[in-house]
Amino acid sequence: MIADRKAFIRANTRLKPVPLVPEISLHVADESVPIWQKTEEELDAIGLPPPYWAFAWAGGQALARYVLDNALAVTGLRVLDLASGSGLVAIAAAKAGAIVAAADIDAFTESAISLNMEANGVYADILVRDMLDDRAPVAPRYDVILVGDLFYERDTAGIPRGWIQRIKASLRTNGPRFTASRMVNDYLSRV
Q: 55, 86, 145, 181: which has the fewest C-beta neighbours closer than 10 Å?
């Protein structure tokens, strides 16, 4: 069993600048399979999900770049980074002056995000729970919901789309704005 997740992360990753967002550094693994196998060995479990928290995924990099370059979109607002992973988008939002919560279902993300926040001198509340299955109303608590890397697989993408539709349908007034990495492609093509 991994008694100290932060020590495990430090031992199996390197703090490196993010390619598309070099002003942010993350604790990242060099390859996915070795850290995935080591996580399963240390936890004495097979079939664990990949350690998404150990990488700066493309959608998160694009969304973080967009947030930093368009800080007024989040400055002073309450922001939820859904499926936060390493916390990259949450870090960008915090650097842009937002009040941030980073949510993910993987228990390792709490330690990974905490280490990455510390390395970048910012803070966010970290929520380890399935926000997509959460029965409590999420929308009123946040002004902006950022989703960077949750739409890679058709089956997985349908879940947040349904969640977003339920939130939109439940709102009587202007609710949170949703920003997905796909929405910033046009912006990035001009950078």
A: 55
Distance between first and last Cα of the chain: 45
The predicted structure's pLDDT at residue 119: 98
- Output the pLDDT for position 182: 42
Retrieve residue 27's tokens.
């604790």
Exposed e or buried b per residue across 65-77, where buried means at least 16 C-beta atoms within 10 angstroms of its C-beta: bbbbeeeebbeeb
Q: Which letter, b or e, does each residue of 130-162 get, where b requires 16 or more Cβ atoms within 10 Å of its Cβ? A: ebbeeeeebbeebbbbbbbbbbeeeeeeeebee
| Beta-carbon-side half-sphere exposure of residue 121 (alpha carbons within 13 Å) | 5
pTM value is: 0.81
Measured N-to-C along each axis, helices 32-43 and 5-12 cross at an angle, to the nearest 10 degrees, of 150
